[in-house]
Design goal:
The structure is a homododecamer of 144-residue chains.
Chain A (H helix, E strand, L loop, with lengths): L1 E7 L11 H4 L4 H14 L2 E7 L3 H10 L6 E5 L3 H4 L1 H7 L6 E5 L21 E4 L4 H14 L1
Parallel strand pairs in A: 1-2, 1-3, 3-4, 4-5
């Protein structure tokens, strides 16, 4: 059984209440359940977390160095501002999937640069909660 | 049965021979078969095409205005230079999925801007031929 | 009788169906009729064409080197990206009128630079289909 | 009978003496007469003015809020530097036509940005004194 | 009794008619009354003026060198384009308050740079007509 | 009675010791007392906090979603670097006031862009501790 | 006897009171006397003027088209922002000398670009009031 | 006998008529003859083509993957705008020579970037028709 | 005996495992021992810490205001993104040494700007673990 | 008697032969004589030198630290590229005058930045050989 | 017999030892011999020189004004930084050929701008030592 | 015994007289003695040189290819402008230490880019004369 770390960055804990025209009405808890259910079908044990802190996000990424088989990350705002997250992701030798609910390239200019993309070559963006499902499918494919 | 137009831009006809360390060894014909097979499981009729011409790509996108239910496009180099492709995609009211074999954001700076992303909010990049499969899954989800 | 070449760039064949709030509901065929009718009053024989291909647009501009007395061009997206169209227009020694249905300067930043304007000093923009009529009037004035 | 305000910005009072290779030999007074004559054929009462002062230009644009049916403006240098003129034009709910004798996009880089174009979507440039005639035709069309 | 010069730049004389969704429905005359009333409570004699002319604005700022105890300025469009206003404000040794009805940083990019802010360290923006009241309160505090 | 959350970003806990020529000699504790006293006069219950952590600042902004009537924020350095704070502020539907002791636009270039201003349209800057008092007045006005 | 127009831009009427560490203690009236005295030795009739208005500056430059033999201009802030002044200076066929009390290139970045220098190739900067004397000497040389 | 593909981009078919002060009076047909004659002396079979279409240029470059021993390309305007041509050239493992009649670095800024140079390290520019001869000499040297 | 605070930023806790070709194989614990040993020879009591959190880094820098004689900081990724760290360092009146294992100027562009360098004028970079030893030597020299 | 060092940078030894439409027909030797003659009238001993070497120019500027009363420098191309010349000029405590034959601001963009102007605030440009005479006059004034 | 000056800039004296994967193993002395031999076949007397000094390079270019029939220059690093070399080359009225061993456009960004190309329109780059041979051929053609 | 070449760039020969608030009062001769003394303790033979000439600096760096064991370089102004120095340093295979008396990143923007840092990964800056001692210590460590 593969252990997958699913990391969520700042303000994603407010999903469902925040700008639903952009992000949809599902809560992060709904998405966690989706991931756990869908992960089961791939034989994944999902470790699903959210934090508003850049430092905690770095801590968690470092945890993935041992005992995890894959990382799926939606770093939200830190995608665009955190070189520390970028450096942490470079520590990993397991597959990394970058996911976004919306497509940052459709939004403001300051969301067009991604420190995460420079490291995690695989990107799925713009499918709403479905981005997570597609991301798990992609991990399953790689780990198979 | 849904009709899906899968469009491929310049040089993708050379897949499998070209920079295999970046793009893998599968040919475009292999990918077409993958799409047709995988499409069948979603009840899709796949119309799979490739062209090196920007104008032909625009012509084909316009065809999708009538009788198609979704478009999946890997515009390759035209992703980054073609405003005409961008304008054509804006004509469509059916779902559009942007796919890339590799993640353009990992490559040269001139591949970081996407005229396609500005229109087709859904993006799947970096999964190799698997990007097409994930793209069809995403279309199936939307059309369901 | 003066022969006038009226050239239309990519996606203009979809006029009337595409973003009518920006471009109006007239089709390109309607505009062609307008041009032929209005051209008659100036003694113009109108040769009206549209293509989605940058190369074809270049071919047609080159045709205007012989046997034509004026060119009116709406290069659409190629206005902003095609140095080849720019170079072709520099071949001509007959008057050139640049027309646009909307004013590109009101739209996205990537429509603010015009390779056509650098060559065709006369510009008429933002009058919808009426831009073509005003353009023919301007040609009539110059050729008179 | 429609009242049309025709506004001319700095240095246009020197037309005919200034750089005739760019602007032609007609004086502004000649152009005023052209406008009045041509305006009559459209049933226009032309109110034709020129000023070198940005503030006066703003004052006059504000006058157009009441009792006028259209504005045609050649803001000359203020086209490119005056945000105040831009803000004044936004006050109007009548049609606005931007005219230029030459095409600013053919000239120095600092004439490529237009604060007027951002507001007055209709542009006629590069036809010399004829730009004013075409501009009145366009206004006639809109007001008809 | 302190004399306060309240200066208003271009187009503010049209307040109440212009883009009420951004600027509210109060006229500049309403705001003048608000300032005189509120100023009285602070023992202020309010000298309230408006001009569309950059030069006049400079003249008036220079007047404040003698016999005034404070300046409150809403330079409107000249905030962003007038180095002359900036230089005039540097002549003063009395307190300067910069006010704006809306927050320019929420609007177009060309309203993000302020020549006034570089000189008048105190800024109040985005409170509508209330910005003037808060500005007078701030002056009262400084002069107390 | 209205509950107001007053948030202070990094290094503001050192006020009074840090660069007094820029920030004055009052400590943050002095400012908290000022706010509580002044808030009472408006019927405000003030919840005054400071943190050096971007993540904690995001947490606290999210708290304001429930049970608070207004937010006043001096995000200090995070004003200029934190997209996460920006995104958190967008979650709120209560009034937001941005305050600064000094005017960032008078200081280094990297303090000229504000992620907070893009969301919190009301800004008060450069009045030292008095900025907080003016900010509470502004909130009282809005909530009244 | 040669007639020389000496033009001074915004805020120069405040010389002697304004930032004396940069501009010295001489008033503009002192400089006018210096110019008249020194001009006499060259057989110059000096017409010395100052305005805070961009439009008036343009008017005065246009006056120099007739009956003047040379222009010396210190456009102050308009040096850096006024394309209208630039266009007016291009109307002249008599020699133009650009003078500055200080050297703008030693000051803020927004004083490094000069619209005047693009036209009036002769520049004398940084000599305080002496810049005017040197400027008259240069005009004398040219006119001799 | 080595087969050499000589590719010419847009508007080169008009050589001899177009801006002879820049490009000389030789036609492309003259240059083809020069190449065939000179190629013979190196034992080259010359396959000489011209197209105005970016897509066709890509097609032809791809043809060179099989049965050719070298490519000499003058991509004209596509040199500066075509990422698709760049990608196609990367497919080749035979020597590539970039030629230009004039030196693009002497001309407008938008001709200073070359997508071709990034791939075809060997460049010969500015020798007019002679550039082609020098290019064949270089190919002969490499293939020898 | 002098107390020295040695601060380490994000991901340095993973030294020895992370990109050893860039950073060497020594762990941060090895470096701590090196510092304590080498510090003893200078009579230094070393307080050695690491955190992945920007806020904690700010907290710790603030601690150095009291009871410490010097600070040596390797802010890692926060060197380049944290204005908050910059502001905290400005609070200190004791010597500050900036150290880096590698030279950031040899790496990606986004590591070329240093918010730390703007405050801590002394820099030692590129010596691997040896940078810390050289840094302590420099502190010993200053404090002697 | 005051000793004045007059320094000339690269290619000025070719004056009179080089681009006479820009620089005039006087040789540098002619200018040296002009300077010696004119200097005599001010009681100046002129030490006039030219070099094509940046290092020699730095050497000579350093010489001016002792036994000279003023420096007049036309650094030619090194004006725009030499930080070493800039640093050398900062060593001096005697007056420095920057002269240019033409006005660099009228020429190519890469001649618009001056490392010399940042140090030698006094500038005389565009008067041809006369610039040197005006420069000596200015030095005489300062030293008087 | 034509005299040709062949100039080599900094570090080219180390050819053959320096980065052979980029520059090949031939020494500059080998290249000199190649040039002399090949030059003989064209009736050229080759004057071949190398210097690390920008000033000496300028001196030598100036020598070419008299008694030489052509210049071939590989300015190496000074290609990209020396405006003085550019100005010296503008003095010449004989043909100038710019050569490079590698293609600077394939290397770092700071090697993409060429001050030499702006003057010497003929460029041959990327052919290794062969660039010199091709350059002499081109000179022979021009001089014939 | 190791031979170390210590190279000093332009204006460093004036140390002790030049801007002592930035560079201290020690002369370069003092620093040379420091280096020789300190070098002895490491068994170093110090070859200490200074030049104002970029070309001479390149010559000397090339000398280090043979018979030297390390280079320590303070290129002063050439650090920021000399690509030739950069290229010369790339010739070396012995360790290179970059030293600066002050930290260039604290000074003007044009001192923030270092051509030396791109090659010499080890940097010591801001320690005054002590930078040289630390640099020798670092070399000793590497060579041991």
């Amino acid at each position: 059984m593969a252990r997958i770390l699913v990391l969520n960055g700042p303000n994603l804990n407010k999903l469902g209440t925040r700008e639903p025209n952009i992000y949809g009405t599902q809560t992060l808890s709904d998405i966690e359940k989706l991931c756990i259910d869908h992960g089961t079908s791939h034989g994944f044990e999902i470790d699903f977390r959210q934090t508003n802190s850049e430092g905690t996000l770095v801590d968690w990424i470092q945890e993935a160095c041992d005992g995890y088989h894959g990382v799926m990350i939606n770093a939200a705002a830190y995608t665009h501002t955190s070189l520390a997250v970028h450096d942490a992701l470079k520590l990993l030798s397991i597959p990394i999937i970058e996911v976004h609910l919306s497509n940052p390239h459709e939004r403001e200019d300051f969301r067009h640069h991604s420190y995460v993309s420079l490291v995690a070559a695989k990107v799925i963006a713009g499918h709403g909660a479905r981005s997570y499902i597609l991301g798990l499918d992609a991990l399953a494919e790689i780990l198979a």
